Amino acid sequence: MAEVFLPPGVRYECVQCGECCRALEVWLTDAEAERLRQAQWPPEVGSPANLTRKLRGRGPHRWRLRPLPIGACRFLTTDNLCLVHQRLGYAAKPFAGRLFPFSFVLTPVGTFVGVRFECPSVVRGVGRPLDELRPHIRRLLDEYVRTYSPPREGPRVRFFGRYELSWRDILRLEDQLLAFLNDRDLTVREGLLAGLRLVRRFASEALRGGEGRRIGVDPGEALAQSETPEATATERVLARLLAASYAGATPHAYREWPFLRRMGWRLRGPARRLAIAVGLGAVSLPRLGRRVLLKEIREVAVGKLGPDSEAMLRRYYVAKVASQGFFGLGCFGRSFAEGFDALAASYWVVMWLARASAVAHGRIEPKADDLEYAIRTLDHSYNHLPEFRGARERVRSALFWNWWTSEKLLSEGD
Ligand code: SF4
Questions:
Q1: Residues with Cβ < 8 Å from 322, sequence gap 6 or more?
Q2: Mean pLDDT across the chain
Q3: Best residue among 10, 13, 15, 84 to mutate for probing ligand 1, ranked by most atoms within 8 Å of CB
Q4: Ligand 1 in contact with 16 (CB < 6 A)?
Q5: Is 370 exposed, middle or buried (0-12, 13-18, 19+ CB in 10 A)?
Q6: Which residue has the higher pLDDT, 136 or 333?
Q7: Which of 2, 304, 372, 410 is most deeply buried (CB count within 10 A of its CB)?
Q8: Are 23 and 118 in contact (CB under 8 A)?
Q9: What are the φ/ψ torsions at residue 100 (nearest 5 degrees)?
Q10: 12 C-alpha vs ligand 1 centroid, how far in Å?
C-alpha cells in the first residue's frame, strides 16, 4: 500500500463550530445528490427539487448543494450539527463534508495529506495529533481514489521553466526548506526568506547548466546575501492587490443571491480592490465585522511577533510545504519554484490581514487572534484564487511580479 505522509505538528479534532458548513461549497456526485433528494427533510431544508444545482462539465462532481442565501449549508442545525449525519448516519454525509479539513496530493512516492487551516481546530493546533487519525485519513483516501480516480503527479516535477527534478531531489530540497522553517533561531519570515533564496539560487544554477544540486545549505549562508533592494511602489500595489484577492473571495452562497445583490457585489469588488491597492479609504473585510481605514493598517507596526503567533505561522508554513499542495496538480500546474514564491509572498498577505484585524480590534500591533484571522482568511482561498489559474492573471503576474518581488517584501517584514 502506498505510503501516506502527514504534515508534521498538525492537530485536529472537530469542535463542531460549524464554520466549514458556513464557508465552503459542497460538491456532490450523482449518487450523493440522489440520496439527499430521496430522503425526507423538514420544511426549512427546502423542497427536493431545490436542494441541488446541476453543474456543467464531466467530472465526478455533477451537482452542488445549494446553500441557504445567508451562506450556510441547508443541513446545518441551530446547534451546529449536521442534519444528514443525525438522520441518515455519518456514512451518508456527502464526501466533501467528511473530507474536510483534509486534502490529498497523489505522487509516485506516496500520498501527501494537506490540511485546511480555515478550521479553527487546525489553526489553533488543538485536538489529536494527525498520526492518531491515520486510519480515518487512510479510509478517506481510499474512498477518494475509488470515487474520483484523481490525477497523479508524474515521475518528474517541473522545477522551474522546463527544468525538471526527480521526486527524490524535490524531497531533499523540501527537507532543507523545512529545516529552515523549523529552525527556532530563525523567525518564520527569515525561514521563508532563506528558503526563497535557496530555491532561487538552485534554479539559477540549474538553468545555467551548473551543478544546482548542492541542497544542504546552512541558513546563515542562505540569508547572508547582498542586501535586497526595497520593494517598488508597483510591487507594493501588487502585494496589496494580492491581499485584496485573498480577502475578497466570492462567498459560496453568491450564486443563490438575488440579481441585485449579486450586481452590487460585482460592482463593489473592483472598487474595493482599487481602494486596497492605493491604500486609501475604508473597506469591510470578511469576518471582521467592521470597516477599517486603510491608512490605519499602514500605521500598525509589525515588530517581533509573540511566541503564540510565531508558533501558529510556523505550523502553517511547515504544513503547506510538507503537504506538496503549493505546486503541480495541487496548484494549477505551477512549477515548484513559482509555487514556493507564491507561498512566500503569502506571508506578506498574512501580515497585512493581521494588521487589518488589529485595526478592527483597536490594537496597535497584531496579536495571536489577528494572526488566526489572517491565516484562516488566507487559507480559505489558498490554491483557489484566479490569480493562480487564469491565463490573463498568469500574464499579469509574469509581467509585473518577478523573482525578487517576494524576497523584497519578505526582507521588509511588512
Ligand atoms: S470548521 Fe473544523 S472544527 Fe469547525 S465544524 Fe468544521 S471541521 Fe469541525
A1: 5, 7, 8, 112, 174, 178
A2: 87
A3: 15
A4: yes
A5: buried
A6: 136
A7: 410
A8: yes
A9: -55, 135
A10: 9
